[in-house]
Amino acid sequence: MVRVIYLLAQSDRNYRQQLVAASVNGERWKKRDGKGLITDREMVNLAQNLHGWTESVYKFGCDIIHLSKLHDHRSRDGFLALDASEREDIIRHLRYYHGGPSSETPIFADLVPLLPRVFEKIADNLECYVKTLESGGDLDERSI
Predict the structure, then answer these.
(1) In which band, very low, low, confident or very high, does the pLDDT at 71 lie, cut at 50, 70 and 90?
(2) CA angle in degrees (0–180, nearest 5) for 140-96-76
(3) For the residues of 101-128, what is the DSSP string, one character each?
(4) 19: how many CB neighbours lie within 10 A of its CB?
(5) What pTM was estimated for this model as a whole?
(6) Residue of 140, 142, 141 lying closest to 8 (CA atoms)
């Protein structure tokens, strides 16, 4: 989502197309002047300045992905195996944007009921941004 927001923020259509082509070809994104690469941090900062929620979604995604390698939830709670900062990011995002979990010290089972709503919201937002991008739109109040 952060990449799509970054693309929408580019008013130069030729440059935007270069970035899309780089994505399709599995290449890193280069800065407009060709000197250096665009970092995730630059994209997150731009998106965060445009929408106050994007850094939270980005952190949530980065942190929650770590649960995939800790998938044996029958023998241990993968959520509790995450770093404390990752757990805090996830809990903060869920509480602020999705109303839970209510437990003072949540475990993975407390998150499970919230996750479908979270992923649906992220997917819906991404779909809206991609449609705007496909139609040649820009990142402004009218199109998003």
Answers:
(1) low
(2) 125
(3) --SSS--HHHHTTTHHHHHHHHHHHHHH
(4) 19
(5) 0.77
(6) 140
pLDDT (average), residues 16-32: 95
Q: Are 122 and 57 in contact (CB under 8 A)?
A: yes
Non-local (6+) Cβ contacts of 27 within 8 A are none
In residues, how long is the chain? 144
pLDDT in tens, 72-92: 767 888 899 899 999 999 999
Mean pLDDT of the chain: 89
Element (H, E) at 87: helix 84-98
Q: Are 30 and 36 in contact (CB under 8 A)?
A: yes
Contact 48, 55 (CB under 8 A): yes
Measure the CA–CA gap between 88 and 112, rounded to whole angstroms.
16
